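Methods — Computational structure assignment.
A single polypeptide chain was analysed. Its primary sequence is given first, followed by the predicted tertiary structure written as structure tokens.
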Amino acid sequence: MTTESKAAKPALPASPPLTERQEARRRRILHTSAKLASRGGFDAVQMREVAESSGVALGTLYRYFPSKVHLLVATMQDQLQHMHETLRKRPPSEQDPGARVAQTLMRAFRALQREPHLADAMVRALTFADRSVSPEVDTVSRLTTAIILDAMAPPAAHRSQEPARPAAPPTPEQLSAVRVIEHTWHSALITWLSGRASIAQVKIDIETVCRLIDLTTPARGGQDGR
């Protein structure tokens, strides 16, 4: 394809929002996916069984999720959304932003620890994901970022009814630190699932990398005397 034809290619239209019935069907599918993965991991999630257990036709399932990888990455997105809601109800109590992020991520890690087969299935799906799964993978990344940014917010912000956010927009350095923390958290999950790291080691790694938040947080005016 030439450069001209690439430039002329129209953008794909955004998918229309799901109806209430379609959303209920999608939720049944995700619930079934998580249930099967919790029992036997990645290999236990078979598309035909997901369709039968969800009460949908196999063709309908594939219209929602073109492959098992799409389905399990969407399952991880769904799990993170629930986790985010739970974390907002019980915000971190530490004083320093880095410590709050570490506390939050360890709580999220322990939630995944309670369902190791499900965690393994979702992480494997992320590992296998190709470009066709990029929108779902991007959503998982945005949710992880949102969890971290919420944890960075001052404790008083969590008592408000509005979504918590840091007092000021994150700086480029802070956003870079958040990306490194995301990578470390994901890597720690993989090494724990493979038996190459203990929970204690994961905690040390998470607490260490979360110090980047404090290192990249701008000093308050006047503190440095300049």
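Note: Residues 68-89 form the longest helix (22 residues).
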